[in-house]
Design a protein that fits this description.
Oligomer: single chain
CATH architecture of the largest domain: 3-Layer(aba) Sandwich
CATH class of the largest domain: Alpha Beta
Number of helices: 29
CATH topology of the largest domain: Rossmann fold
Radius of gyration: 30 Å
Strand content: 5-15%
Largest sheet: 7 strands, parallel
Number of domains: 5
């Protein structure tokens, strides 16, 4: 086996006599040499690569090997990104323990890291959460041209507006030789999902392995799978039939008013149909309003019946009780009351109240006892719902010999406080030490956290996600043979989800093989969107936009970054996006727009915009500002729009989503700055109070002069009058004032006023 490793390593990653990696920057005896990790690392050093490995096969080791070699051969900084602070800290500690470099050259950036310590050029390795790192990039605090490697852990998150996408595309466009490494246990089941992920992260190569691959099998242990069907009680079966009948009836009624391609059967499909109706004018069509109510009722019960199918009657009844409580509150939607007054639903509720025992919970206790008696040291029970995890912990704790603890997310639920990251770390540490032998984990335990291998894994419920199935199974069979028990209620969504997940897992492997074969025969194009920007746009002459700090996490900022905009963040007193000296945009979602009408905030903001900028713009983002859910009369909305246009000379723009908002903002900024040659200048700041503030404010109105430059001018010339009287040559003595700025300043100060030149 070591001969294979040595051949694959091609002298980069040798194995010593005890089977440990030998490399100038990796400490001796720290990393075991595994042929598949070495082979994948060699590929990843050549091209940006997406690596797909089951949980537990050492994706982080591959990142370490690639980073070590890049640090050895290249000047610059390696960046390692992970979705959560515990994961970032985990990687930081692993690299610090394994690498033979000065620990002071490794930086850990989280929200707690002072801004003063985020000096990018001081380090060789930076570990950060994606949101924080993206913000540092957008603020201009990170020189991506100096980055020699970016690692994206849990790379499957790179979809929608996730920060990974912005970082990858900016890096691909700004670095002469970008190298990226994506790590995931599952990139998605369909070819479109996998290819989209590779496009989003500008990946050229795909490397994946399964536990059965020839270069992996020497390092993994056998896993036994046990499917455990749990029959439904006859009372539950009857109740379930009544509930499903009510759901079908609501959907059928909606289909009569609004024909749809196929009958929706799940939450996503019903939501698509609701959105399709909302996209069309429907307020004057009572049958469509009723159809929306029918679908809303069906969607509520889809959620409720999933709890029944996965967990049992108790959790369905809890959900129904919450609906009852909501209907008692003033202003609650009237369509909800039909759920709790329909005879079928009333009968179903009565039947489920008669079912006292949870057959699945009893089966879980039986399996846990049996495993404990057989000598297992650790058991992990996976369950999707927080409330069920609490009950499982309580019931298992009553079993003699079982020492049970829970691992849950940070968000607190009603009657159940979440766990902080410190508390999560403490739980995992005690589980590893053997203080507990059963860990009941929600989804937070499936992804990334360093949970040691367990003898037995138990699925208490099932999920249709192939990703989550792979991640759960990966918690066993690492160092010793493992067992996986999969419990499911027969003939329910619980069983359907199991087979869907298995099918998606198989499909994922098939699609990856096809993509890999295609990539081997033909080099993939560079997927980075910003590669298609012309050289003028991608260079120093790119569009610049000043964005309010409060918009930092907004998806619009991500979309602007994709378009290659140079973004500067500032605390704006007026508006959200400054596009030029005369155009400022206030952006509001549909919900924020209607609520700002009700509290009069809208008109205060409109007045400030109109007083400060020649072209005030209000951009309303969303599909239907007249939606009944806005709780405001349509006549009031139309009146507000009329007042904005006629009373505050505001330009109104509409967009469907964040991407369209960004494209509109970009188009306006492009025309203002490149075609009309308008400067980028913030106006509308709070009026300065001190003489010094007034002097800075006065000079900040000069062309190409912002606050920092104004202060430099005043320090040099002492008074604004001397600045106004200074020659071009005198102005150029100030740091930051070149011949272009000096010429423009003198032109504005000396040229005779021409009223016809006003725009």
């Amino acid at each position: 086996m070591w001969e294979q490793v040595k051949m694959a390593a091609s002298n980069l990653f040798k194995a010593d006599s005890e089977g440990f990696i030998v490399h100038p920057l990796i400490r001796s005896g720290k990393v075991r040499a595994r042929s598949y990790q070495v082979n994948i690392s060699l590929t990843a050093l050549k091209d940006s690569t997406l690596v797909v490995l089951p949980t537990g096969l050492g994706k982080t080791v591959i990142a370490l090997l690639v980073a070590a070699e890049k640090l050895r051969t290249s000047e610059g900084v390696c960046v390692v990104l992970a979705p959560t602070k515990p994961l970032v800290e985990q990687h930081y500690n692993f690299f610090k323990d394994c690498l033979r470099i000065d620990p002071d050259l490794l930086a850990l950036w989280t929200g707690e890291t002072p801004v003063a310590k985020r000096v990018f050029t001081d380090y060789r390795l930076v570990f950060a959460t994606p949101q924080l790192f993206r913000n540092e990039v957008l603020k201009g605090n990170v020189q991506l041209s100096r980055v020699i490697l970016i690692v994206f852990d849990e790379a499957h998150r790179a979809k929608g507006n996730y920060a990974y996408i912005t970082i990858a595309q900016r890096y691909a466009s700004e670095c002469p030789s970008p190298l990226m490494l994506g790590l995931t246990a599952s990139p998605g089941s369909g070819r479109e999902d996998i290819e989209a992920l590779m496009r989003n992260l500008s990946m050229k190569s795909l490397e994946f392995r399964t536990r059965s691959d020839s270069d992996v099998t020497p390092y993994v242990k056998r896993i036994e799978y046990h499917l455990v069907p749990v029959p439904l009680n006859p009372l539950v079966k009857e109740a379930r039939s009544l509930i499903q009948g009510f759901i079908n009836d609501q959907i059928d009624r909606a289909l009569k008013a609004f024909p749809w391609g196929k009958k929706p059967s799940n939450f996503t499909e019903i939501t698509e149909m609701i959105n399709a109706i909302k996209d069309r004018p429907f307020l004057d069509k009572p049958e469509l309003v009723d159809a929306l109510k029918n679908l809303a009722r069906a969607r509520y019960l889809i959620i409720a019946i999933e709890r029944l199918d996965l967990l049992g009657p108790k959790y369905f009844l809890q959900f129904i009780n919450r609906i009852v409580e909501r209907t008692r509150k003033p202003g609650s939607p009237k369509y909800l009351s039909q759920i709790i007054t329909d005879k079928r639903m009333l009968d179903a509720v009565e039947l489920l109240r008669l079912q006292k025992d949870n057959a699945k919970l009893l089966k879980l206790i039986e399996i846990s006892k049996k495993e404990l008696e057989s000598g297992v040291n650790r058991i992990i029970v996976f369950v999707s719902y927080r409330a069920a995890s609490k009950d499982i912990e309580k019931e298992l704790s009553l079993v003699e010999g079982l020492k049970v603890t829970r691992l849950v997310g940070q968000a607190s639920k009603i009657g159940d406080r979440g766990q902080s990251q410190k508390e999560q770390d403490e739980v995992l540490s005690r589980f590893k030490k053997g203080e507990f032998n059963v860990l009941v984990a929600t989804q937070v335990g499936e992804e990334g956290l360093d949970i040691s291998s367990s003898d037995t894994i138990i699925f208490y419920d099932n999920t249709p996600s192939g990703i989550r199935f792979v991640q759960r199974v990966g918690r066993t069979g690492r160092n010793a043979p493992g067992k996986v028990y999969i419990l499911y209620f027969q003939d329910t969504r619980d069983e359907q989800y199991l087979w869907i997940a298995r099918r998606r897992e198989r499909k994922m492997l098939e699609e990856m093989r096809m993509i890999q074969r295609r990539n081997e025969s033909k080099k993939e194009p560079n997927y980075a969107l910003t590669r298609f920007i012309t050289s003028d746009e991608a260079g120093e002459d790119k569009v610049s936009i000043i964005v309010d700090n409060r918009e930092l996490a907004c998806p619009v900022v991500n979309e602007l970054a994709r378009l290659g905009v140079k973004i500067t963040f500032s605390q704006l007193d007026v508006g959200d996006y400054v596009l030029s000296e005369r155009v400022c945009v206030e952006r509001k979602t549909v919900n924020d727009f209607t609520s700002s009408i009700m509290d009069s905030r809208l008109f205060q903001q409109a007045k400030l915009l109109a007083d400060s900028y020649e072209i005030p713009v209000l951009l309303i983002e969303g599909k239907d500002v007249y939606s009944p859910s806005s709780n405001i009369r349509t006549s009031a909305i139309r009146g507000a729009i009329a007042a904005l246009i006629t009373g505050y000379r505001t330009v109104l723009l509409w967009s469907r989503d964040a991407r369209e908002s960004a494209e509109l903002i970009y188009a306006i900024a492009l025309r203002e700055q490149k075609e009309l040659k308008k400067h980028l200048q913030v106006r509308g700041e709070k009026k300065p109070e001190t003489i010094a503030d007034q002097q800075v404010f006065l000079l900040s109105g000069l062309p190409l002069v912002e606050r920092t430059t104004a202060i430099k001018l005043l320090k040099y010339f002492k008074t604004p009058l001397r600045v106004f009287n200074a020659s071009e040559q005198d102005l150029q003595q100030v740091d930051g004032i070149g011949d272009v700025k000096a010429r423009r300043i003198r032109e504005v100060l000396t040229k005779e006023f021409d009223e016809e030149g006003l725009t």
